[in-house]
Amino acid sequence: MDKQHIFDKPKNVTRLLVFFYAILVILVAIDFVIQKHPHFAWEEWPQFFAVFGFVACVLLVLVSKYVLRPLVKRKEDYYD
Amino acid sequence: MINAVHPALVFMAGALLIPLLKGKAKSAYMLLLPILSFMNLLQIPAGSHWVIGFLEYNLTLCKIDRLSMVFGYIFHIISFIAILYAINVKDDGQHVAAVLYSGAALGVVYAGDLFTLFIFWEIMAVTATYLIWARRTKASSSAGMRYLMVHLFGGLCLLVGIILQLHNTGSVEFGHIDLDGLASVLIFIGFGINCAWPGFHSWLTDAYPEATITGTVFLSAFTTKCAVYALARGFAGTEILIWIGAAMAAFPIFYAVIENDLRRVLSYSLINQVGFMVVGIGIGTELGINGAVAHAFADILFKGLLFMAMGAVMHQTGKINCTDLGGLYKSMPVTAIFCVIGAASISAFPLFSAFATKSMVMDATAKDHLTVIWFILLFASAGVFHHAGIKIPFFAFFSHDSGIRTKEAPLNMLLAMGIAAFLCIFIGSFPGYLYRILPYPVDYAPYTAPHVMAQLQLLFFSALAFTLLMLSGIYPAEIRAINIDADWAYRKGSKAFMWLLTNPMSKFGAWISRTVFDVIPSALGWASRNPVAILKIASDSLLLKFAVPEKRDEIRRRIQREKEIYPGDIIRHWPIGTRVLWAILFFLAYLLVNYLSGVKQ
After folding, report:
1. How far is A39 from chain B (nearest CA, A)?
2. Are B461 and A51 inside 8 Å of each other by CB?
3. Cβ <8 Å between A53 and B466
4. Would you say residue A15 lies in a domain?
5. CA nearest A34 in B: which residue?
6. Is position A1 within any domain?
7. ipTM
């Protein structure tokens, strides 16, 4: 029998996720109290970087999966 | 008088002794080489040294200033780390090639003139090719050949550019070059090919994943960074570099998301990181150049660390594809931690190296109000976290358990990764030490509350996107497949070219030879039997076109008759006068030639 490892227990995975979501909430909260000195106006908008990061990554994945992959995917022996 | 030798010499001469040593002595000797080389370097004061006359030009073999010194420092650090990582490999050829390659990289950054630079540039291409071939697989031998071809082409551009530059300016000194005219464009492209500009990039993503486990660590450090150095010295402030760099930062991340081979994912992210450096060079302000150089310094360490971690996985499991890996944190926990440190560094988490270096480039774009570029780089920053920061450690060490149970990598590999990981954190936590050695004085503070906050938000919400896409199953499944890229043009292109040669081209060739050697001679032969009759037929045919309708029948009949009796004996009915006329013409020509030759004498 293989040794039980830390992420073999679903409980630990859930704990990690809860911890992760808690950090997100804290980050959103701190954003309102922080003093900003931006180069661009939009850097001052509340939660700008959070929204940008989330949207950017969702777009990145969707474009890669639904646009790029159908265009460039080939069988592994394509060049042989 | 300097008590030192040329900075590249310790490596390049030292490499040749490696095969003579055995066992522990060999390992110790190899580890001593970068240390000796570094001590030698410190003996050389700033300025130009070893100026030798070559033909009527002066070659400056070594020029030391702040820009070349930063690269000198990091090249010594990474060569020590990479040699430590590689000493358990039992292949003298690889060791010699890797050390020669490191030495040539030093030769490039200390070259005071373009010819010296070119010589070391070419040595790098050849030794790097050996590190790819040394894997000794079918894929590596053809990828190595393609690598060599691309780099020889790049080297040729560079050489022609240098010769033209010499012709135009009369000097081979390597300083700032204005991008005007063919010479500078060729040099620019020569550098750009090694820098993996979009369109010229696929040698990198093609060859690096096929090279040996340890060879890739060397490769990831030197070739592109030498190009970054060369661009920083020659083309700082060249505006088109801003756009080239932005494209480099943006497009590879899409490929990285769908790529299965984890070392290829890293190769794409290497281009993405070099993109940031190229943007900084294109901006050309002190902050931009400092940012580019600092980021090159940091990138060599964290990219080396990530390639070492993936190399360790490959070394222990023999596998490198996402589809075959997963759950390795159970049997390789130390490697997993080092990999996560590398991932945090490339993602620019606060306290990790890129946070203090990449942000200088971001700041330089913001200070110049390059809004579009700033957005592209911010997108690339989120994207790099996504594919290099999360994808690499997640699919190798966590994700679904692949069932692979193995041991930790050998001690020397772990030590090498440990040193790189330590330096990644050290640079991120105490950036002042790195800032002090940059080419220009640094007036930049990375650790401000809004910067830390903005970066944390960007990264954590990118991670949220990954988590939600993963949990919802939208994240693209790992697939056993390859993705075609720009190398398609010459890999399939060469086949298409061969097809073109064997099919339409060879038919065309056959048609040409039939026409030239068969149809035309026989037609001429036919025509020469009675040229006068041919002329007559031709003139009658022409007449037919313009004749009034009543005359046409008559002319047609005449042509008909002339063709029927061809070649005929018309020649016999030539009037005497015509023959006399010809004879007189020949005599005249003869006299003329005679007269003219007489005049000459």
Report:
1. 6
2. yes
3. no
4. yes
5. B450
6. no
7. 0.92
The reply to whether A79 falls in a domain is: no
- B259: alpha, beta or left, given left = phi > 0 and alpha = psi -120 to 50? beta
The packing angle between helices B411-429 and B353-367, to 10°, is 40
Query: pTM score > 0.90 for this model?
Result: no
Measure the CA–CA gap between B506 and B55, rounded to whole angstroms: 47
Question: Does residue A18 lie within any of the structural domains?
Answer: yes
DSSP assignment of chain A? -PPP-GGGSHHHHHHHHHHHHHHHHHHHHHHTT-----SSGGGGSTTHHHHHHHHHHHHHHHHIIIIIHHHHEE-TTTT-
pLDDT tens column, B69-121: 999 999 999 999 999 999 999 999 999 999 999 999 999 999 999 999 999 99
8 Å CB contact of B461 and A30: no
- B405 chain-A contacts, CB cut-off 8 A: 2
Domains in chain B: boundaries: 529-568, 574-601
SS3 B19: helix
Question: Sign of dihedral through CA atoms A61, A65, A68, A74?
Answer: positive
List own/partner pairs for B23-32 with CB under 8 A and 24 or more apart: B26/B87, B27/B87, B30/B83, B30/B87, B30/B95, B30/B99, B31/B80, B31/B83, B31/B84, B31/B87
A19 contact B CB<8A? no
Please give the residue range of the domain that contains residue A51.
Answer: 6-72
